[in-house]
Amino acid sequence: MSQQLSTEPVVSVRHLNHSFGKGALRKPVLVDVNLDIYPGEIVILTGPSGSGKTTLLTLIAALRSVQEGSVKVLGQELYGASKKQLVQVRKQIGFIFQAHNLLECLTAQQNVRMSLRLHHEMPMQERIARSIEMLQATGMGERLDYYPDSLSGGQKQRVAIARALVSEPQLVLADEPTAALDSKSGRDVVEIMQQLAQEQGSTILLVTHDNRILDIADRILHMEDGRLARDTALRA
Ligand SMILES: Nc1ncnc2c1ncn2[C@@H]1O[C@H](COP(=O)(O)OP(=O)(O)OP(=O)(O)O)[C@@H](O)[C@H]1O
Fold first, then answer.
1. Is 120 exposed, middle or buried, given 0-12, 13-18 or 19+ CB atoms closer than 10 A?
2. InterPro entries given for it (predicted)?
3. Residue 197 — φ and ψ, nearest 5°?
4. What are the phi and psi torsion angles at 169 (to 5°)?
5. Closest residue to atom 30 of ligand 1, CA basis
6. Please, what is the end-to-end C-alpha distance for the chain in angstroms?
7. CA–CA dist 184, 176 (Å, integer)
8. Do 175 and 210 meet the contact criterion of CB atoms below 8 Å apart?
9. What DSSP line would sit under 103-152, residue for residue?
10. Residue of 43, 85, 16 lying closest to 230 (CA atoms)
11. From 159, 216, 228, 235, which residue has the greatest number of CB atoms within 10 Å?
12. 30 alpha carbon to ligand 1 midpoint, in Å?
């Protein structure tokens, strides 16, 4: 990706090591991980269960502390960063998880609008308009006022995508977004993610076991035993 080499990476990881447990029970989970992800890339992180994918994703998400090495996200070094700095980074990331984490007491539209609550400068009318627009873009325009318990798994995941993307984050992190879905719904949700991210110029890092969606990636990173074993470019 020659044109990207001159661009600053959105995510840059150097010599990252991570362990769980202490003393004799200490278990290394990530071993000397190095990677760069550039603006606009869709990168899939795959590998066997227990290979460290979620641990790596949560470190990049500023959801756990970096023990050793460097993790730079959107220009901020996370090693040694303060709580305030970590919160600041998290605010700029869109999250999509397997368990969509929608608030059951809020409608689809209210769930999406929640994502804009930190945008104090944005008038309420605009927040509402953007939330509706994003739900329409994910094919949920007919169900704006539905509560999560009356939506199917695929529909909930579409709401979760709308919620993650409505603030136009530079970085979207997704952990098994299709795991709870049948193959058609799974394909649909990743295609929506791909299309919206392309329109917004967002970068996506997506952890999955789902071989049916690998082709949406620009690059596939394969983890084994805590190491990055392969880095395969699908599109130059
Ligand atoms: N909080 C924790 N405390 C102790 N060990 C943990 C913790 N979280 C994860 N582990 C261990 O770290 C290793 C890597 O876990 P991780 O969840 O990162 O793997 P994964 O590749 O995402 O797996 P899967 O595909 O099954 O989700 C596993 O052996 C797991 O048991």
1. exposed
2. AAA+_ATPase, ABC_heterocyst_DevA, ABC_transporter-like_ATP-bd, ABC_transporter-like_CS, ABC_transpr_LolD-like, MacB-like_ATP-bd, P-loop_NTPase
3. -65, -40
4. -70, 150
5. 50
6. 5
7. 15
8. no
9. -TTS-HHHHHHHTTTT-TTS-HHHHHHHHHHHHHHTT-GGGTT--GGGS-
10. 43
11. 159
12. 10
Q: What is the pLDDT of residues 167-202, one digit of tens each?
A: 889 999 999 888 777 788 788 888 888 888 888 889
Neighbours of 23 (CB within 10 A): 5
Phi, psi dihedrals of residue 128, rounded to the nearest 5°: -65, -45
**How remote is the CA of residue 205 from the centroid of ligand 1, in Å?**
18
- The rounded distance, in Å, linking the Cα atoms of 10 and 88 is 15
Pocket lined around ligand 1, Cβ cut-off 6 Å: 20, 29, 47, 49-55
CA distance 228 to 31: 8
| Token duo for residue 236 | 């130059």
Tokens read off for 8: 């600053």
Per residue in 64-113, pLDDT (tens digit) is 999 999 999 999 999 999 999 998 899 889 988 766 689 999 999 999 99
Amino acid in the structure at residue 169:
P
- CATH code of 2-233, in short, is 3.40.50.300
